[in-house]
Amino acid sequence: MRVLALSTLRVARLILRLQLQGGVESALLNAHSDSDTLLAVSNLFGKETKALNNKKSKIQNPNEQSKSFIWALVVLVVVVVAVVGFIVMQGKEKKDNAFADHPVNDVAFSAAVEDNSITLKSDKAGKDAKVVDIYEDYSCPHCGDLAKETDEKTRELLDQGKVIVKIHDLNFLDDKDGTDNEPAKDGNSTLAGASALAIAKDGDAKTYWAYRDLLYTEQANIYNKWKAEDFANAAKQLGASDDAVAKIKDYAYQDELVQHAEANAQELEDKLGKVSSPQVFIDGKHVEGNPAEWVNQI
């Protein structure tokens, strides 16, 4: 689209160079960029309109008037197409690079999918490492608050091998689908969780950790607005593999995420008698009160 837009502007410049005379032609010949061309064209139509108004009382050759009018229309159409193409191209480039500057930090732990959770563990973790179970829903604002408040410390504890963290995805905040009173499979929690699951199953802990952070920091902008392609595009910008990106686009792990979420919800029912998020357990013991306090209990 960028090539088309620029080519169209060059065509407009050539047409105007061949057809125009005087000061306007000079302005176009001195235009060294597409933005200069657009400005020159804008000036052209302003001057042409003024000139036509001044010449209303003069006798002109009808053929010349017709010829000038046709060329003016041709140039106008070319410029409109170029401007529209330029705007579309700019919008696409902005979307494709919206998260290019989001931090992606190195990590000293691995990511694996097991027991309905995403397990994060360093090679340094020994038998004395605490097992921390975090139950979260990507549509939950409080989960976002917990992540923002504790993720930096969590990464340090993981890198040092002091904890093994298991992320348990939930989707109970998705709208019900109206058939069996179960969360809709195309809800925000499910789609976000499935996209993160794709990266974790790829074994890419570094990108997974950065992507999870993005899902929470951009939560308000993502909620019920993003589709699979949007999640895939964001994952790609953060460095996810082509295979992981393709699986996100294809909804490859949507059903698996739903299975995880159902199992995790049942675990909370069994442990707490309710399903809510976020919930944190350290070595099986529930963290009461403020869940963010868990990092101070290690």
TrEMBL record:
Keyword set includes Cytoplasm: no
Give the GO molecular function terms. protein serine/threonine kinase activity
**Residue ranges constituting the Thioredoxin-like fold domain according to the UniProt record:** 128-291
What class does this enzyme belong to in the EC scheme?
transferase
Please indicate which superkingdom the organism of origin belongs to.
Bacteria
CDD domains, A to Z: DsbA_family
What EC number(s) does the entry state? 2.7.11.1
Q: Which Gene3D superfamilies match?
A: Glutaredoxin
Q: Which InterPro entries match?
A: Thioredoxin-like_fold, Thioredoxin-like_sf
Kindly state which keywords UniProt assigns to this record, in alphabetical order. Answer: Kinase, Membrane, Transferase, Transmembrane, Transmembrane helix
TM region(s), chain numbering? 69-89
* Name of the protein in its database record: Serine/threonine-protein kinase PknE
- In which organism is this protein found? Corynebacterium gerontici
Gene that encodes it: pknE
